[in-house]
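Quick one, tokens below:
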């Protein structure tokens, strides 16, 4: 048998000498021949793979001859140049011929059909919209924070205009001032990014528990090098936006003024317009986030209030496979009734 990576880590502690060991499974002696690389569980959680069938039902002739047995899942690879649409068209033609040849096994009212679905869509389809919504919300929150920080920096620059004008007059020039602003905003953005990563690290488990209900790939969600690299890139983009947003045209005038020390520092018309625009953008995005959050909360409350048509309190569900070739159908039904 081959172990899954997760089961190998959980039950064998990741020991490399596990290959070659023998274990007993359902009364059979099996030899561990390998460990699968980390991969999502599909179509359901699996601990090990064996090259034999241990269920009597799956060894019966029903699996081969019975047309009403519909528990089969097939993985297929498209031929080069083919599309899923073409594959579904071919499947529809084949299915219609089979159903016409065996009308007793395919009742028209049941609507039996065979459909090809891309594996990526099956693995992530249910979670894609939720995760995209979370990403969009994160982006909107980033825009709010960026607008707020940019407004604060613009206000701070008003008080620093004399200092920056002196730097300009001493030869710093526009690029020297930009580098200073870029350094300050870079430290601010990277500090915020580091704090965000520190908060996100323990919160990943929450996201995994949410996503594992919708996709078998939830275990792959983690803070790794790609996430850290993306965070650094976003922080640098934010730092650049903050450093190059303010106009330095007024500094040139102040830097060449003979009455620099007596110059009154007041925000210019263009800077006031930028500040007002930032406030408007911040309020608009905040309204979008709050409205979306309110709609989602109302939807959740509405779903929780839906009457399922039964009393779910105290109800348990479980799967109990019955092993053994010596049990008849009647014995199995009796056993289930007793349980």
């Amino acid at each position: 048998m081959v172990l899954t990576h997760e089961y190998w880590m959980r039950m064998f502690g990741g020991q490399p000498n596990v290959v070659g060991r023998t274990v007993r499974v359902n009364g059979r002696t099996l030899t561990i021949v390998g460990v699968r690389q980390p991969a999502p569980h599909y179509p359901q959680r699996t601990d090990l793979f064996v090259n034999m069938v241990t269920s009597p039902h799956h060894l019966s002739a029903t699996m081969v001859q019975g047309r009403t047995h519909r528990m089969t899942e097939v993985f297929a690879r498209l031929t080069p140049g083919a599309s899923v649409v073409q594959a579904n068209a071919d499947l529809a033609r084949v299915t219609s011929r089979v159903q016409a040849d065996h009308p007793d096994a395919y009742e028209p009212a049941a609507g039996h059909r065979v459909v090809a679905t891309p594996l990526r869509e099956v693995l992530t389809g249910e979670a894609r919209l939720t995760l995209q919504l979370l990403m969009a919300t994160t982006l909107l929150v980033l825009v709010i924070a960026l607008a707020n920080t940019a407004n604060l920096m613009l206000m701070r620059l008003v008080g620093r205009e004399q200092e920056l004008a002196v730097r300009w007059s001493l030869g710093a020039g526009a690029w020297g001032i930009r580098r200073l602003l870029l350094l300050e905003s870079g430290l601010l953005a990277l500090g915020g990014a580091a704090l965000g990563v520190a908060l996100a690290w323990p919160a990943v488990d929450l996201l995994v528990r949410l996503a594992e209900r919708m996709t078998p790939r939830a275990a792959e969600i983690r803070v790794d090098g790609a996430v850290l690299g993306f965070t650094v890139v976003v922080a640098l983009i934010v730092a650049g936006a903050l450093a190059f947003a303010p106009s330095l045209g007024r500094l040139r005038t102040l830097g060449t003024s003979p009455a620099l020390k007596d110059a009154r520092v007041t925000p210019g018309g263009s800077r006031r317009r930028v500040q007002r625009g930032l406030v408007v953008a911040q309020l608009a995005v905040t309204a979008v986030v709050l409205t979306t959050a309110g709609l989602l909360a109302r939807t959740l409350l509405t779903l929780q209030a839906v009457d399922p048509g039964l009393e779910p309190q105290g109800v348990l569900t479980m799967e109990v496979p019955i092993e053994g070739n010596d049990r008849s159908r009647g014995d199995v039904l009796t056993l289930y009734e007793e349980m």
